[in-house]
Each structure stands twice: as C-alpha cells, then as structure tokens.
Design goal:
- Helix content is about 25%, strand content about 30%.
- It has about 300 residues and is of the alpha/beta class.
- It has helices at about 45-50, 60, 75-85, 135-150, 170-185, 205-215, 235-245, 305-310; strands spanning about 10-15, 20-25, 35-40, 95-100, 105-115, 155-165, 190-200, 215, 220, 225-230, 255, 260-265, 275, 285-290, 290-295.
- The chain contains eight helices and 15 strands.
- Helix 3 packs parallel to helix 7 (about 235-245) and helix 4 (about 135-150) packs parallel to helix 5 (about 170-185).
- The protein has a six-stranded mixed β-sheet with strand order 5-4-3-6-7-10, with helices on both faces. Strands 12-11-14-15 form a four-stranded antiparallel β-sheet, with no helix packed on it. The protein has a three-stranded antiparallel β-sheet with strand order 1-2-13, with no helix packed on it.
- Strand 8 (about 215) and strand 9 (about 220) form a beta hairpin.
- It is globular, with a radius of gyration of 23 Å.
Amino acid sequence: MGHEKPIEPFSDLHREGDRVRAVLLHDPTVEGLDMAIYMDASGSMKEEYKYETKPRTFLEWIRGAPLKEPANQVEPQVRWMLEYLATKDRNGLLRVAYWASGTNGRQVEVVGELKGTDVNQYKFPGAKQLGGYTYLEPALRDYVKYLEEQVKVGAKRGCAIVVTDGRLHDAEAVERFSAEVAKKIATGRLPRINFVLVGVGDDIDEEQLEHIAHQEHAGVGHLWCHRIAKEITQVAELVAVLVDETMTVAAGGTIYDDKGKVLKTYEGRLPAVLEFDVPEGAKSFTLEVHGKRYTQPLPDEEHHEDEDEDHH
C-alpha cells in the first residue's frame, strides 16, 4: 500500500503526489575509496588522551550502578569517526595512526587497519611518546605511500582525515608536498586524494590552515578542506559533514523517469537526499552515476497521504 522497498543504493523512499524524496544509503559516486584517520600526538594533546574515571552521580551510587570505565576525550571521537567513515571505505578498514609523535614530533605511529564494525574493542590512548613539535608532512607522506600500495589492490580514490590541536611547525613543507601530490594526481600517477583538516581548540593558527586549504592546483583544484572545532567532542560530527561535502563532488548524476526522460541533473555533486517530481503514473525512476544505472520502483500515489498522516 503505497510503499516500495528501497533498493541499493537507496535507504529510504517517499512519494507524495508527484514529489519523490529518495535518500542514499551510501554514496554511489565514491567507488574504491580508501580512508585514513591521523590523530595529533603532540605534547599539547596530553590532557585529551588522559584516561579519567568519572565519579558516579549520587543517584547512580544509590542504585548500585557499577563504577565507570576510565575514558579519555579522544577515544569516543575516533570510534565514532571510524564507524561512520568505514561505511564509505571500499573494504570497511581504515588506516588509523598518530602523527607528530616522538621527541622531534616527526614520527608517525600506525595503530593499524581498523574495522568499522569492531569500534568498541579499540582503545586510543595516544602515541607511546607524545611529540615536542607538530610536523604534519611525515603523516602525509605515510598516507600517500600507503595509498600507492592500496591502488594495486583496488583503491581508486583516497581521503585522509587529519586532526590537530596546535600550530604546524612545517606549514611550508606541507604546501610543497601538497603541490607534488597534486602534480601526480594531474598526471595520473596517483588517484584523486582529499585531505580533511580539523583544528581543535584555541591554539589553532586558523590563518595557517586557511592558507593550506585555499591552495589551488592545476587540473586538480583544492586538495584540502578545513574547519575548526571548539572542543575535541565536536570533531567526529564535523568530520562527517566535511567528508560528505567533499566526497560527493564526483561527477554528479542524472535522474530519468520510466520512459527515459531526464527529470533532474546534478552537475557538481550528488546530495545525500534527492528530491524531484515524476510524471503522473510513473512506476519507477533511474539514477545514473558514472555510467551505472540504478532503477528504483515507485510506490503508488494513492493512499500515501492518508498513510503518512497515520504515521506521524
């Protein structure tokens, strides 16, 4: 009665009269995406990585609630990002690493290839040795080298999330290396890569981050995008928004009715929610992305509005 099961890549479908609203479950434009998360491990992050046991509230104590597990501020954020970003990654595994570790701040400590489905088993206590300086270029080199290996086994695109709470000591080196990466992308020696930079707290040099993010490269455009989070607790949500904005900049898509007529064209990017009008009596619509077609049967128009009223 007015309902059709959504097929991949749609997760939800509504029709009211001629208006259709289709929600994408995962992004069909991002094929072969290989993602990574790089967490700042410089000394200024010491407090955020510190495990503390929160005391029970009076009510919890009266009810005999168990003592709370020690927690730090970074762990829930990394788990949240990992779980979400794994839905976009080609194999659900993300490279997670600490950067700016070691006395000279140039070390990258790789935690591993982590599964989005096992997030609650992972601990993120910070690097073995927090760094004295904040050098980002080694982390970028680490990711590019990793992606080159992944290309051999199916990676077609890369995205690395970088979280920092301070000023970079090697901003110029980062810009030079970004230019090298862009050249390799433009000449086809590397797949398309996006770097997402999130600054946390009050010690961020926003001008520095903007300078890096605003660099434009011939044939590639921007490699970087950035935002500032006031608190570490806002990082995961910000990253999700940035990744959605950045990663859907693929070739857009076209929606056709069941007679092959174009109903809507998305030029720059495909949003997560597609809204369009279908002709009366249309039984389905087709989304075409990257030459692939996904045909979704439509629910009947009748009964739908009454049904909606019952549901809300």
